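This part of the workshop introduces the protein records we will be handling. To make this concrete, we reproduce a full record directly below:
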Amino acid sequence: MTVARTEDNPIRVGVLGARGRMGAEVCRAVEAAPDMEIVAMVDTGDWMFDIADAGAEVVVDFTHPDVVLDNIRFCVDHDIRCVVGTSGFDVAKLDTVRSWLEPKPALGVLVAPNFALGAVLSMRFAALAARYYASVEIIELHHNRKVDAPSGTATHTARLISAARADAGLAPGPDATTSEVDGARGATLGEVHVHSVRLPGLVAHQEILFGGDGETLTIRHDSFDRKGFMPGVLLGVRSILTRTGLIVGLENLLDL
């Protein structure tokens, strides 16, 4: 469910990481949305209390894994809802955010590994396919300025696949590898091998490869421009006004 707001009563949005590549795109998207207005734009070295002083209802965070938890804690302490696209969330960090929200039952935080609608759909398709194939691996490809590997999208995809395989009672896929150069088989998340590529010219791309007897299935999503993430960001801003607790993944806001 999303909240219907108008030009006369817009959603008051603060943007953290406003001078970064994603943050700047978020600012343009919010400014163009008739039911929203930017009330604060904050980046490294700026005063965080500008967000609270401006009366922000929702903060969009595209900053850095090293500071994102501090940002969320600030917002929760000031009763501001969060839409977070910053990478680097593991189970422990998510549990930390949940613990902060426990005494704030009316507050909501969305942490989305990917805001592109096609990426969200590809992850759902992968979870559906996971129970039907013996083996699966993920290749994620990003620009060489990305600070974390594997990507948050790949990590979330691996979690969804592992959960689907566990629900289906599947054993780990066959793999005869006994000798390898360190890292040649990628990182292992759950039981899923994940391979990270970092090259200039890329934006954000992911392939999920399934293998069975006599066939393979490849699910691929490509983001060529950061504008492709903006419909999902705006959906998150609108939806979080009526959500409570920690929500992980944009798929939880879609009717899938």
